[in-house]
Amino acid sequence: MKKYQYIIFDIDNTLLDFSRSEYYALQKVFATYGVVFNENTFNQYKEINHDLWEQLEDGKISKEVVLKERFKRFFLANNIVVDGVLVDKQYRGFLEERNDVMNEAMSLLTQLKSQGYTIFAGTNGVGQTQRKRLASANMTDLFDGLYISEEVGFEKPDVRFFDYIFNDARITDLSKAVMIGDSLSSDIEGANRVGIDSIWFSNGAETSDKTYTKKVDNLSEILELV
After folding, report:
1. Which residue segment(s) compose the domain that 67 sits in?
2. Where does a domain end: 76, 95, 114?
3. Sorted alphabetically, which Gene3D superfamilies does this protein's record hold (predicted)?
4. Cα 138 to the center of its chain, rounded Å
5. Are residues 116 and 201 in the same domain?
6. In this structure, is residue 30 part of a structural domain?
7. Which of 2, 10, 152, 218 is deepest in the core (most CB within 10 A)?
8. From first to last of its 226 residues, what are the pLDDT tens digits of the chain?
């Protein structure tokens, strides 16, 4: 017997390997502007980007600020003045060239679809970029709906992001819904705020945070839990 009917999947580093795609895209961006890509510059960008996304999730800044400022601040720290909006557009173009898929993701989605689950993508990010990446990975048709923060108007973990999904998909019994993702701060926290179960995809990571309902190290384990 199915425990859930509605499964909401995060995309980045849950179904699509964003880390691998990001690594490729950043190499291209850095080369375009003459910055050496190495561990130091990579971590420097990651720190700036993480800080901005953290502020976004806390509701302190808008997504427009994130996309405008992350490369502007990074390159300025390397004594290069750039148009942050233009560089971000170039970066997302490089991201869209990739279709890196997490291990077992396609098999999991295909099996869930064949067993009659209603599957949604619930992801933070830019609409065009996320849709292109899903299409390139041949995943789009496996979802019953794509909910992307830029298009929804709210970011996970904002309850309004999830309420939008529930209202649009006409989900009234929240006990039948589960959120699956790799981020404790957006996926799991968001699920907790709206009162639905969550499955944390740890991908081998460890945490003292036990706010998730269930934890899996591999995507294949999800079939047994839903």
Report:
1. 19-95
2. 95
3. HAD superfamily/HAD-like, Putative phosphatase, domain 2
4. 17
5. yes
6. yes
7. 10
8. 679 999 999 999 999 999 999 999 999 999 999 999 999 999 999 999 999 988 988 889 998 999 999 999 999 999 999 999 999 999 999 999 998 999 999 999 999 999 999 999 999 999 999 999 999 999 999 999 999 999 999 999 999 999 999 999 999 999 999 999 999 999 999 999 999 999 999 987 887 777 999 999 999 999 999 9
The two structure tokens encoding residue 36? 């050496």
Name the residue among 2, 15, 44 with its Cα closest to residue 201.
15
173 is catalytic: no
DSSP helix/strand/coil, 128: helix
CATH of the domain at 29: 1.10.150.240
- Does one domain contain both 162 and 105? yes
CB-CB contact of 123 with 12 (8 Å): yes
Q: Based on the structure, what is the number of domains in the chain?
A: 2
Examine the residue annotation and report whether 141 is marked as an active-site residue of this protein: no
Residues 6+ apart with CB under 8 A from 212: 184, 188, 191, 198, 199, 200
Measured from the Cβ of residue 128, the count of other Cβ atoms closer than 10 Å reads 13
Return phi, psi of residue 88, to 5°. -65, -40
Pairing of strands 177-181, 145-148: unpaired
Instruction: Using a cut of 0.70, tell me whether the model's pTM lies above it.
Output: yes
What residues contact residue 188 under an 8 Å CB cut-off, 6+ apart? 179, 181, 198, 200, 209, 211, 212
Q: Edge-to-edge strand order for the sheet containing 197-201? A: 145-148, 118-123, 6-9, 177-181, 197-201, 214-216
CA atoms of 162 and 198, how far apart (whole Å) = 13
Stretch (H or E) spanning 145: strand 145-148
